[in-house]
């Protein structure tokens, strides 16, 4: 495996992505606990990340000495290169030549990291983002490539297998970056690329069996990819010791709950309890308009309902969850202080303590696309694996203003037509998330010879990589016209349709 020491760069997770893509297992550890991480993981190579900090500042973070004492190959990226140089006897200066964005690298020497990739005299695009730079190399190092503003852009100590780069090989704007990282792992560190989803599946199944023994597990199944894959994996490991509970809050999409239930029961023969709690949820939500209040009510009712059902089943020792790696990585913070809550996401947090259960989280080591690959491996249908994300609070947060049953029904119909049109146009996979929103605004229209006074429906579609930032999707007008006409013709209660052209930031993806 590979240990990635995180000094707080925005893109540290991308380093892990590139290492995994090279078929090698890796973990990210914050620099503060890098020594423990190193001892625990016993890696065969180390990568040092970038950082918003400056190595010349007093008290700025360092890599633990154990890494350099171990004799293992080390690859330092940006700040990682600078701290490695300082720790090994070189010099770094705060830069007057700041470099941001695209730069070109001239290869001055052959280097084992360039094998099959770059040769002496060639020039390559890389992505720079740094203020400081190395100004004197430690003994044993030499420069193998330079850029106009970074004379030490790429340095190597071939004897000790130490490599350092000023640029960011982990980002896509460095087109050969993934291959450089692959060369470091395969050729320099000699690690085989045999981390695959089928190997992961076997290992995870073993681990779940060991952890659970002959005890019982319960899972909350929402029909989302993460909870579905986690449930299938646990089911494969312990079969009927697993019971899944689908808390149907009546805020799902049209036919959604029924299709999830059918698939898991029939196709996978999984113990699945479908709890129709829609009256309870909608009863409490009736008339509530404040977004955070809606979210809190839904979160609380979800936990209460789940807990009651679990008790009826006689309880369980374990709670299965589809927690992913990005939720597990401790983030390195230099700003201190808590960040502002934009929205309170709802999950089953707090339940394990309340019910005295231990967690089974078989996806803790995986990124989202790895979970999808694992789902494929477990036979989940493509239509399921490629599904757009759907928020826990469901349609309640797509119905701004006071909630009523009638409004939810109108929204559910409009949303189904919109998605149907997206599927028909073959656009579903090009869009990251699409949905309809029912506005609490009535406008005047004319249909046939009559006046109408009905609700406005807003359509939303975004492209995104991780939901953290997003762009609105650029439909052609024909498509929007078609979807709008159908919605107005087929859904009673809507007489006007608008399209949301807000990106994130400044908007969020959901309206509440
Ligand atoms: P926002 O609206 O914050 O949404 O830009 C980013 C992504 O998160 C989803 N989302 C949620 N998912 N529970 C969830 O499981 C929630 O409470 C929740 N709120 C938003 C949203 O659909 C989008 O994919």
TrEMBL record:
Signal peptide: none annotated. One of its GO terms (cellular component) is cytosol. ATP binds at residues 222-228. Residues 195-387 form the GMPS ATP-PPase domain. The active site is at 78 (nucleophile), 168, 170. It comes from the Bacteria. The keyword Ubl conjugation does not apply. Keywords: ATP-binding, Glutamine amidotransferase, GMP biosynthesis, Ligase, Nucleotide-binding, Purine biosynthesis. It catalyses: XMP + L-glutamine + ATP + H2O = GMP + L-glutamate + AMP + diphosphate + 2 H(+). Pathway: Purine metabolism; GMP biosynthesis; GMP from XMP (L-Gln route): step 1/1. One of its GO terms (molecular function) is GMP synthase activity. Homodimer. This is GMP synthase [glutamine-hydrolyzing]. It comes from Rhizobium gallicum bv. gallicum R602sp. The lineage of its organism: Bacteria, Pseudomonadati, Pseudomonadota, Alphaproteobacteria, Hyphomicrobiales. The gene is guaA.
């Amino acid at each position: 495996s590979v240990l990635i020491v995180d000094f707080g760069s925005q893109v540290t997770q991308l380093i892990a992505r590139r290492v995994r893509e090279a078929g090698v297992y890796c973990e990210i550890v914050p620099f503060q606990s890098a020594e423990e991480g190193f001892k625990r993981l016993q890696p065969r190579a180390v990568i040092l990340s970038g950082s918003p900090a400056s190595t010349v500042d007093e008290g700025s973070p360092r890599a633990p000495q154990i890494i350099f004492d171990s004799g293992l190959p080390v690859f330092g990226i940006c700040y990682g290169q600078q701290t490695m140089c300082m720790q090994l006897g070189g010099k770094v200066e705060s830069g007057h030549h700041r470099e941001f964005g695209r730069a070109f690298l001239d290869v001055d020497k052959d280097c084992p990291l360039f094998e099959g990739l770059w040769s002496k005299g060639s020039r390559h695009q890389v992505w720079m983002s740094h203020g400081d730079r190395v100004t004197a190399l430690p003994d044993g190092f030499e420069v193998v490539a330079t850029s106009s503003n970074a004379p030490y852009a790429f340095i190597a100590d071939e004897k000790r297998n130490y490599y350092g780069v000023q640029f960011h090989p982990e980002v896509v704007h460095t087109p050969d970056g993934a291959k450089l990282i692959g060369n470091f792992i395969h050729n320099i560190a000699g690690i085989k690329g045999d981390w695959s989803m089928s190997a992961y599946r076997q290992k995870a199944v073993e681990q779940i069996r060991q952890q659970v023994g002959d005890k019982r597990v319960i899972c909350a199944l929402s029909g989302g990819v993460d909870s579905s894959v986690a449930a299938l994996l646990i089911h494969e490991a312990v079969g009927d010791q697993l019971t899944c509970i689908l808390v149907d809050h009546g805020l799902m999409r049209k036919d959604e709950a029924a299709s999830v239930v059918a698939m898991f029961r029939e196709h996978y023969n999984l113990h699945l309890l479908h709890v129709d709690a829609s009256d309870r949820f909608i009863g409490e939500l009736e008339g509530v308009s404040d977004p955070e209040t809606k979210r809190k009510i839904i979160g609380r009712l979800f936990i209460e309902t789940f807990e009651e059902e679990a008790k009826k089943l006689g309880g369980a020792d374990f709670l299965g969850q589809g927690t992913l790696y990005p939720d597990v990585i401790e983030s390195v913070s230099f700003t201190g202080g808590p960040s502002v809550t934009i929205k309170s996401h709802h999950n089953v947090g707090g339940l394990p303590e309340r019910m005295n259960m231990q967690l089974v989280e078989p996806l803790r080591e995986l990124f989202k696309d790895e979970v999808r690959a694992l789902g494929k491996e477990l036979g989940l249908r493509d239509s399921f694996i490629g599904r757009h994300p759907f928020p826990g609070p469901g349609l309640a947060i797509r119905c701004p203003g006071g909630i009523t049953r009638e409004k939810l029904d109108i929204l559910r119909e409009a949303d189904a037509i919109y998605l149907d049109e997206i599927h028909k146009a073959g656009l579903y996979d090009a869009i990251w998330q699409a949905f309809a929103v029912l506005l609490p605004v009535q406008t005047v229209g004319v249909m046939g010879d009559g006046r109408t006074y009905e609700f406005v429906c807003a359509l939303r579609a975004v492209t995104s990589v991780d939901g953290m930032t997003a762009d609105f999707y650029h439909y052609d007008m024909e498509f929007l016209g078609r979807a709008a006409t159908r919605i107005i013709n087929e859904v009673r209660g809507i007489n006007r349709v608008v399209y949301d052209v807000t990106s994130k930031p400044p908007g969020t993806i959901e309206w509440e």
